[in-house]
Amino acid sequence: MVTVLIAILLPFVCAALIPLLYRRLRRVTHLGWFVLSVPFILFVLLARYIPQIAEGKTFIHTYEWIPSFNINFTTYLDGLSMIFGLLITGVGSLVILYSIFYLSTKESLHHFYCYLLLFMGAMLGVVFSDNLMILYTFWELTSVSSFLLIAFWHHRKASRAGAKKAMMITVFGGLSMLAGFLMLYVASNTFSVREIVANVEVIRDHALFTPALILILLGAFTKSAQFPFHIWLPDAMEAPTPVSAYLHSATMVKAGIYLVARFSPIFGGESIWFWLVSVIGLVTLFWGSFNAVRQTDLKALLAFSTVSQLGLIMSLFGLGSVGHYYGYAESSIVYTQASFAALFHLVNHSTFKGALFMMVGIVDHEVGTRDIRRLGGLMSLMPVTFTIAVIGSFSMAGLPPFNGFLSKEMFFAAVLAIRDVEAFSIADVGLFFPFIAWVASIFTFVYSMILIFRTFLGKLQPEKMDRKPHEAPFGMLISPIILCLLVVGIFFFPNVLGHYILEPAMASIYPTFPSSSELTPHIHAWHGINAELWMTLGVIIIGIILFKTLKSWKPLYRIFSQKYTFNTYYNRLIEISENGSEKLTRKYMTGNLTHYFVYIYVFFIALIAGYFIWSDAMTFHFDMDSVIESYELILVFVMIFAAVWMIFAKGRVTAMLLNGVLGYSIAFFFVIFRAPDLALTQLVVESVTTALFLLCFKYLPDLMPEAPPKRVQWSKAVISIFVGATVTMVGLAVVHYDRFEPVSTYFNDAYELAGGSNIVNTILGDFRAFDTMLEVVVLLIAGLGVYTLTKLKPRKEEADREN
C-alpha cells in the first residue's frame, strides 16, 4: 500500500531536506510552515481510509528486504494502527502549528524540526510495521530522536540529564524487547505479527513463550513510563513545551501502550500477562496521581499526571485480556469492554493532555514562570487560556460534559466487572482493583483542581512573576482551542468515534471474535444510578474536601524521604557504575602497549582454544592428509628461521626485512597451492608495506636493547607459544570440524544465487562489493563527523551561556 509507505518515508525525506532548505526558507517564511504541511498531508491521506477501515478492511503490502532471514518491510494498516497513525499526524500538526508561535526564530529551528520529523517518521514506522525486526528498528529510532528533542536546549544541564535518563531506560527496555522478539521468532519461525497471531495456539506451549512475554512487556513498560520505570518522564519535561505536548501526551509514551494492544491477541489469555499488565498499570495509576499532588511546577504536575493516565490505560488493557481467556461468548463480552475503554481513553487523553501541556507552555511563555507558588489570579488577564485549562482539567478529572468523564465511567465499570471473573484467582483480590482505581481518581481530581485554582484564581502576585501577564497571541491559542473543541465534541458525539475508529481497533485486538460490533458498546453519558455513579460522586466530594484541606495534610509527603526514592536509587546505580568503570579502566588502561597485547592474546587463547576444547572439537586425523613435499619443508624452515631471527634482531631494518621474508614465503605457498590471485595480492601488499616501512624506519634511531625481568620474558614466551599453538591446532581441527554446516554449501548453486557460474567470482563480485560499500559508508560517517567538529562551531551566544 503506497499511502502507508509514503506516511513512513515522507517525514524522513523532509527531515533530510531541512538542512539544505532552511537558510532559504527562513528568509521567506517561518520554517515551521513548511514542516506543518508534512503531518497535515499525512493526516488527510490516512483519514481517507477511515470508511474502509470501519468496514473491516485491512491494507498490507510487503517490500522484500532480506528475505533469506524473513526480514521484509511489511506495512500493515488496520483499525489499531489507524488510531495511532491519526494521533501521530493529527496531534503532530497541532503541535507544529503551536511551535511556530512558541519558539523564537533565534532558536536552532532547523535542528528542532529535523528531530521532530525523525521522531514522527519513527513512530509511524512502529505502528505500521508488521515485521518484528522492522518494528524494533523504528522503536529504537524513537528513543534516539526523543533524546535529541529532550536535549534540544543542550546548554541546560537538566535537559541533558533528562535526555540521558530517558535514553538509558527506554533503550534498556528496547534491548529486552528485541530479545523477546527473537524468542518469538524461534518459537514461531516468523517475524510477522499477523502470522504469529494466526498460529498462537501452536506456540503457547513453547518453552520461550513466557520469557518472550516478560521481555516484551519490559520494553512496553519502559517506553510508556510504567512503575518503576516512570522516573524518566518527569525529568524529560525539561524539553520545550511543544516536545512535551507531542511526545508525552500522544506519541512516544503511547508506543508502549500500542505494543501491549498489538500483542494482546498473542499473550492475552495468559495469567502472567493479566497480572503484570493490570497490576503494574494500577500501581502506576495510583503512584502517578499521588505524586502529582505534591508538585509545585506545572509541567512536573502534568508529567506525573501523564504517568498516572498511562497507568490507567495500561491497566484497562490488562483487564481486557480476560476476554482472550474466555474466548467469544455472550457472557464474556463484558470483559472486552475494558479494552474498548482503554482505546477510548487513549484518544481522550491525547486531546485533553495535549491542550493542558500547551496551556502550561502559554503560561510559562507569557508569565515567565511555571511555579505554582508564584502564580495566581491569571483568569481575568488570560481568559482564553483559563478556559482551555478548565476544559482540559475537568476532562482529566472525569467531569461532564467532557470526554474524560465518559472513559472514566467505563474505567470504573471495568474494575467493578473484574470482581466476577473466576479465572486467574481474581476473586481473592477482586476488591483491590476498584478500590485502587477509586483512590487514584480522587488524587486525579485534586491535582486537576490545583492546576486550575492555584494558577488562575486567587490573588495576583505580579512581584513574583518574571513578566507582566497577558493573553497569548492568537496563533499560539489555535491548537489548544481545537483540542478543547474535540474534548467537548467527543462528549456529545462519542459514538461517531466509537463506530469509525474504536470498533475496527477492537477487531484488531480480538481477531478471533466473529463480530467487532458486539465488542463496541453504545456510549452514553447517563447509565442510571449505579455503582459507577456513586464512585464518581465519592471522587468529587472527597476530592473537594482534600483540595480545601490541602495545606493541612500535604506535609504528610515529607514522610517519604528523598533518600529512598527511585530517582535516588537510579542516581546511585549510575554513580556506582561510573565509579566502577573508572576504576576498572584505570587498571587495564596503563598506557603500556605490551599490556594491551597481553590482554588481546590471553582473551584470544581463552575464547578460541577454550571453545574448541569445551566443544570437544580439538581432534586431528592425519591419515587422509596430503603428502608434504621437500620444497614445502624448506619453505617452512625458512619461515621458522626468519621468525626466530626477527625476535633477536638488533635493528629495525633487519627486522623489517625478515618480516618481508615471511610474507614472500606465504606468497610462495599460495603459488604451490594453486591460488595465483592470492599470491599476486600477497606479493603486491608485501612489497608495498616493506618499502614503506623501510622508508620510515631509515630515519628512526636504532633499537635500544631492553633488559626486562626474567618473569616478564617468560610470560611473553608462554603467551607466544600458546597463541601459536592455538592457531596451529585450530587450523588442523577445522578441517575435520562438523558442528556446523560448511559455508560452501550456501554457494552450491552460484548461478541461481547471483548469476555467476564461478563461485569465487560470485563471492568477490557480490559479497566483497557489499563489504566495500559498508567500508565506504564508514568513511562517509567519519568524514561527516570530522566536518561537524571542524566547521559547525557553536554560536557565540551558546558559548557564552556555557561559560
Secondary structure elements and pairings:
Elements: H1 2-28, H2 31-47, H3 50-54, E1 59-66, E2 71-77, H4 79-102, H5 109-128, H6 132-150, H7 157-188, H8 193-198, H9 200-203, H10 209-223, H11 232-235, H12 241-247, H13 252-267, H14 271-292, H15 298-320, H16 322-326, H17 333-367, H18 383-397, H19 403-417, H20 432-456, H21 474-492, H22 494-509, H23 531-548, H24 550-553, H25 566-588, H26 593-614, H27 630-648, H28 652-672, H29 676-697, H30 710-733, H31 750-754, H32 759-791, H33 796-802
Antiparallel strand pairs: 1-2
Helix pairs in contact: 1-2, 1-5, 2-4, 2-5, 4-5, 4-12, 4-17, 4-21, 4-22, 5-6, 6-7, 7-10, 10-13, 10-14, 12-17, 13-15, 14-15, 14-20, 15-17, 15-20, 17-18, 17-19, 17-21, 17-22, 18-20, 18-21, 19-20, 19-21, 19-23, 20-23, 21-22, 26-30, 27-28, 28-29
Membrane topology: Multi-pass membrane protein
InterPro entries: CPA3_Na-H_Antiporter_A, MrpA/MnhA1/PhaAB, MrpA_C/MbhD, MrpA_C/MbhE, ND/Mrp_TM, Proton_antipo_N
Protein name: Na+/H+ antiporter subunit A
